[in-house]
Design brief:
Elements lengths: L1 H12 L20 H4 L2 H14 L21 H14 L23 H17 L5 H4 L3 E20 L5 E6 L6 E10 L3 E8 L2 E8 L3 E5 L3 E4 L16 H7 L4 E8 L2 E9 L2 H6 L5 E13 L5 E13 L10 E18 L2 E17 L5 E17 L19
Antiparallel strand pairs: 1-2, 1-3, 1-14, 3-4, 4-5, 5-6, 6-7, 8-9, 9-10, 10-11, 11-12, 12-13, 13-14
Pfam family, one: DUF620
Protein name: C-type mannose receptor 2-like
Organism: Gossypium hirsutum (Upland cotton)
Length: 401
């Protein structure tokens, strides 16, 4: 009873450590001081990359040799993998879901861009089968398994030479492809759970409808600040109704050709109040925007792109007086291979390309890392028997220091 009492007390008094949506320091192992250092790790990541790229030693950061003779994973490969999992493992959508269904939105007295977007979303719901199979799109729960392949592409470091020119150096070529798998559970739009394993490292994330959290072996458990938002992996063709709800207040920007498809482009932004709730310490979220590209021919979502910009106050030395740094993470996902699952079209393949761009306000220095993910869905099941809200309870250690 004493243990339960202490656990209950910490439930109400413990401040949750924010979940990062960007690169993380792979060597940060300490359990203590995570809240204080949560955004410092981004600055350390850049310093590590910069120091490695301009080192005089040709073997200081070799990306071509990943395994030593004893079979252990060298720091370079471990760094790449954890950067991949930090950015592409379980990113969240920019905005929370609406409480009311998309088909209940009133079109009276709204801008033409919004009403056009609403029409496109209705076409998307019809094309995916949700208007005929609402009992499936409104299923009580969903289960999906899939496979992933991740690649850390070339990282570019640039800095001023002091003579009006920039020195740009690249760190190797494409890294070794790392494969893995994932399992996603969803109960209603606001409750979900994800387990992702790549290269022997696991990321576990979930939401109970109130708290979004993530756990990794090298950083422990973190909780996201701000309003509860859905998992981006779910809106990449797995749950058409949730995707439609995200674009309920979108604006139609016009048309654009993606590959061989003419598409309507829809844009939705996180409002300022919701963005400010996600601020933490020296880090300020400036904007988070989501773009959806819907095929004019099929009506289906074929491309998804979001851009997340954060400003971090810095106290860097010998950096030309740069007082703050900006981190912009852009993820573009091609979505395809739609197949019928109980009357609903579910995307079974896709490719995501993420770019992490770091630049200063006054300095000419910048770094850019590019990474790719190829994913495929192996199985999708609606209304799994026995799944309950108890399956989405957050781990107890998010309330422990």
């Amino acid at each position: 009873m004493g243990t339960r009492a202490r656990r209950k007390q910490s439930w109400y008094t413990q401040t949750l450590t924010p979940l990062l949506e960007g690169p993380m320091d792979p060597e940060m192992q300490e359990e203590g001081n995570k809240k204080e250092r949560s955004w410092e790790v981004i600055r350390e990541w850049f310093r590590t990359q910069k120091g490695s790229s301009f080192s005089s030693s040709p073997t200081s950061f070799s990306m071509s040799k990943y395994f030593y003779g004893n079979g252990s994973i060298p720091p370079a490969r471990r760094h790449d993998l954890r950067l991949l999992l930090g950015v592409l493992g379980c990113p969240l959508a920019p905005i929370p879901l609406l409480n009311h269904p998309i088909h209940h939105i009133r079109l009276k007295d709204i801008p033409i861009e919004t009403s056009t977007a609403h029409y496109i979303i209705q076409q998307y719901l019809a094309a995916s089968g949700c208007l005929k199979q609402r009992q499936k799109c409104g299923a009580k729960n969903m289960y999906a398994t899939g496979s992933v392949k991740m690649i850390c592409c070339e990282t570019e470091i640039s800095r001023g030479s002091g003579k009006g020119k920039n020195i740009v150096k690249s760190l190797g070529t494409r890294s070794q492809e790392m494969g893995g798998c994932f399992v996603v559970w969803q109960m209603k739009p606001e409750m979900w759970s994800l387990e992702l394993v790549v290269g022997g490292n696991k990321v576990i994330a979930g939401s109970d409808g109130k708290t979004v959290w993530r756990h990794t072996s090298w950083l422990g458990t973190h909780a996201a600040k701000g309003p509860q938002r859905p998992l981006r992996r779910i809106i990449q063709g797995l749950d058409p109704k949730t995707t439609a709800s995200l674009f309920a207040k979108a604006q139609c920007l016009g048309e654009k050709r993606i590959g061989d498809e003419d598409c309507f482009v829809l844009k939705v932004c996180a409002d300022r109040a919701a963005v400010m709730e996600r601020n933490e310490g020296p880090a300020e979220v400036m904007r988070h925007v989501l773009y959806g590209y819907f095929s004019q021919k099929s009506g289906l979502l074929i491309y998804l792109e979001d851009s997340h910009l954060t400003r971090v106050q810095t106290q860097e030395e010998n950096e030309g007086g740069c007082a703050c740094a900006y981190w912009e993470t852009t993820i573009g996902s091609s979505i395809g291979d739609y197949r019928d699952v109980d009357g609903v079209l579910i995307a079974h393949q896709g490719r995501s390309i993420a770019t992490v761009f770091r630049f200063g306000e006054l300095s000419m220095q910048h770094s850019r890392s590019r990474m790719e993910e190829f994913w495929s869905i192996d199985d999708v099941v609606f209304n799994v028997q026995g799944l309950s809200i108890d399956s989405f309870i957050p781990p107890a250690d998010i309330f422990d220091r």
